[in-house]
């Protein structure tokens, strides 16, 4: 039975909830997760399917400015325009670094999920003994863990999607988390006395419409996370709604692959429409178009959640807190254990970095062996050539018993190993310049018959060298007539190549200043909204609510445009 009598004097709060050790642990893990996602983005450690051309430009520029280890590989990727170049061992080292960071993020993501579940289960099950103040702080910590965990879903969605059973377990955890979070939030808003247990009659729960409005963004984020885990980032809410509408009308549901191909084809057509319109502000329109679907566009919402979690805990723990006893802030066993558990992420960082270094060393050794093998073959061919000019005999005579020859060979091998990365980059740069020049000529000649008219074989070989046509026009690629059907096959391929080059030119000419300014505006609005919403000042709270609504609109421009078009169509039909 709960003791519903308010305490006389200071409140003895649970130090494992409101103590400095527990709060520091939550803040530290959330900050590590947030900044790791940022580092993974700017260092080109994200899955390539999560990035678009605007991300490539931003990551390439940031990498050159900060000299991140992945910047060279990113620049090669963004400039080759679909023609594969580069050294395989360099890409294997890049993949090892991406896997190391991804494994580290998986550990942090699971830690946030488990921590959020643990704190909410403990709070909900302890309502008879926990005061309203303890329960409110526990809700803030659980909310903070939940929103931080959601930030990792956007990064790891493709990785989770490939492991069905583990994905289902995570989704089950997400469902339990959102259920506990919703109940705890409604229970907290009905607390009238922070000094008595939550289960007392004076704190009887009741649901207000403001609770539903406050929880709606979180429910939308969780629905979006589950959608991303099962369908991937390409399939949006409107695609699922359209599929349900087709099912209700008795039509066959499209597969995820068909939906993805249709969206990809539609995006390429939209880019063509933007290019063919008036050239005034064309770079700005293209930049905003690509920004709207970029990974960078997710950072304002992620930053809002991070700042809101910090501001909420600060408001609950310090601004609106009753006077606490000294025992409430003492470091107990639970807090010390929580702080010691912070070592685990850093051990994971060390393990990930060690595996990355080992992979780089093995790649360097493989490059050195390849260079030495090529050099030996060239020397052998040179020696076997009839035009080979021999050196003076005195310059090539060595004593077989002299160990300096073996020492020179060893130094040569070490030098080859030391210069392997530079040689690989030099080889990549030569190939890159060649392909860049070729693509530039193709883009300049896109309005002319740049493909030979008298050589079908040559035009087919050229068509096959473009590696990413299917990434822009998957439906067109599947609908191409067979090669033995001339001239239909030739005309279709020439038309597709011209459209492909048009889209590529649009990607190269997109503007960055306006989208970056829009990103900065959205970011600042989200930070201010997170701070003002947790202010005790009524006017600042109202401003924070308006800024939060504006932030939601800025983060969902495509949805807003679709809603406007839908309303316009409905109004036109009603007028008729």
TrEMBL record:
Coiled coil regions, renumbered to chain: none
UniProt feature, compositional bias: Polar residues: 400-415
Lineage per the UniProt record: Eukaryota, Fungi, Dikarya, Ascomycota, Pezizomycotina
Name of the protein this chain belongs to: Uncharacterized protein
Keyword Hydrolase recorded: no
Classification via InterPro entries: Elsinochrome_Biosynth-Asso
Membrane-spanning segments: 20-42, 100-123, 135-157, 169-186, 206-223, 288-313, 333-353, 514-533, 539-557
Superkingdom classification of source: Eukaryota
Keywords assigned by UniProt, alphabetized: Membrane, Transmembrane, Transmembrane helix
Location of region: Disordered: 380-424
């Amino acid at each position: 039975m709960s003791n519903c009598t308010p305490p006389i004097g200071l409140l003895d709060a649970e130090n494992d909830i409101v103590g400095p050790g527990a709060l520091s642990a939550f803040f530290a893990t959330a900050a590590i997760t947030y900044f790791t996602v940022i580092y993974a983005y700017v260092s080109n450690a994200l899955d390539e399917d999560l990035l678009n051309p605007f991300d490539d430009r931003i990551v390439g520029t940031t990498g050159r400015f900060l000299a991140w280890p992945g910047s060279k590989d990113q620049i090669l990727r963004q400039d080759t325009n679909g023609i594969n170049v580069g050294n395989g061992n360099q890409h294997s080292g890049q993949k090892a670094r991406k896997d190391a960071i991804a494994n580290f993020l998986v550990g942090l993501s699971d830690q946030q999920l488990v921590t959020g579940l643990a704190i909410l289960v403990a709070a909900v099950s302890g309502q008879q003994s926990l005061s309203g103040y303890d329960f409110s702080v526990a809700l803030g910590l659980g909310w903070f863990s939940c929103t931080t965990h959601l930030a990792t879903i956007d990064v790891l969605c493709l990785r989770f999607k490939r492991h069905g059973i583990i994905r289902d377990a995570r989704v089950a955890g997400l469902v339990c988390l959102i259920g506990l979070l919703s109940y705890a939030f409604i229970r907290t808003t009905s607390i009238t006395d922070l000094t008595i247990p939550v289960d007392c009659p004076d704190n009887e729960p009741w649901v207000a419409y403001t609770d539903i409005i406050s929880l709606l963004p979180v429910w939308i984020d969780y629905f979006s996370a589950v959608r991303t885990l099962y369908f991937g980032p390409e399939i949006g809410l409107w695609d699922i709604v359209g599929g349900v509408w087709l099912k209700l009308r008795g039509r066959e549901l499209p597969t995820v692959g068909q939906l993805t191909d249709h969206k990809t084809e539609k995006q390429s057509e939209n880019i063509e429409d933007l290019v063919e319109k008036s050239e005034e502000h064309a770079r700005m329109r293209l930049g905003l178009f690509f920004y709207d679907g970029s990974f960078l566009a997710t950072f304002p919402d992620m930053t809002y959640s991070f700042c809101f979690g910090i501001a909420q805990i600060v408001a609950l723990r310090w601004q609106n807190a009753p006077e606490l006893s000294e025992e409430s802030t003492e470091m107990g066993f639970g807090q010390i254990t929580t702080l010691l558990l912070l070592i685990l992420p850093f051990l994971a960082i060390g393990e990930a970095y060690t595996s990355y270094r080992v992979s780089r060393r093995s790649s360097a050794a493989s490059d050195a062996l390849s260079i030495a093998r090529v050099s030996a073959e060239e020397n052998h061919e040179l020696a076997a050539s009839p035009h080979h000019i021999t050196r003076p005999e005195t310059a090539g005579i060595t004593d077989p018993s002299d160990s300096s020859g073996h020492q020179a060979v060893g130094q040569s091998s070490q030098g080859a190993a030391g210069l392997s990365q530079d040689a690989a980059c030099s080889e990549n740069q030569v190939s890159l310049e060649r392909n860049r020049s070729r693509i530039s000529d193709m883009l300049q000649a896109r309005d002319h018959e740049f493909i030979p008219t008298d050589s079908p074989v040559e035009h087919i070989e050229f068509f096959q060298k473009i590696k990413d046509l299917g990434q822009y026009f998957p439906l067109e690629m599947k609908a191409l007539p067979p090669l033995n059907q001339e001239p239909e096959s030739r005309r279709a391929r020439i038309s597709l190549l011209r459209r492909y080059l048009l889209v590529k030119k649009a990607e190269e000419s997109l503007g960055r200043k306006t989208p970056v300014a829009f990103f900065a505006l959205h970011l600042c609005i989200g930070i201010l909204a997170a701070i003002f919403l947790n202010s005790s000042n009524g006017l600042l709270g109202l401003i924070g609510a308006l800024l939060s609504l504006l932030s939601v609109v800025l983060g969902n421009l495509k949805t807003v445009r679709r809603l406007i078009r839908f309303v316009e169509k409905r109004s036109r039909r009603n007028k008729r």
